[in-house]
Automatic annotation (TrEMBL):
One of its GO terms (molecular function) is transmembrane transporter activity. The chain crosses the membrane at residues 27-47, 59-78, 84-103. One of its GO terms (cellular component) is plasma membrane. This is Guanidinium exporter.
Length: 106
């Protein structure tokens, strides 16, 4: 169950990052509210996952899901730049996440 909490927490990190961008520096109320709610939920689920998962694994997976997901959302929905170097960096992050998961004893 901890891994499910962790994945959902990571997905919520993508949500709050996207809506933080949409909030235009917290000047727009609805995106700001979504940002705050998603942050609280993400942190709460991360805390629940950390009850049984190691700190290093859970925090790294959480930030990795958020980083890779935000990268993809930025490209797909915000028209951000795609380059070989940026894609390679994301591939390396994903490879690191896979190794962490495979070497976790949980």
């Amino acid at each position: 169950m901890s891994w499910i909490y962790l994945v959902i927490a990571g997905l919520l990190e993508i949500v709050w990052a996207y809506f933080m961008k949409q909030s235009e520096g917290f000047t727009r109320i609805t995106p700001t509210a979504i940002t705050i709610i998603a942050m609280i939920a993400s942190f709460g689920l991360l805390a629940m996952a950390m009850r049984t998962l190691p700190l290093g694994t859970s925090y790294t997976i959480w930030t990795g899901i958020g980083a890779v997901g935000s990268f993809i959302v930025g490209i797909v929905f915000l028209g951000e730049q795609v380059s070989f170097a940026r894609v390679l960096a994301v591939i390396l992050i994903v490879a690191g996440l896979i190794v962490l998961k495979l070497t976790s004893d949980h």
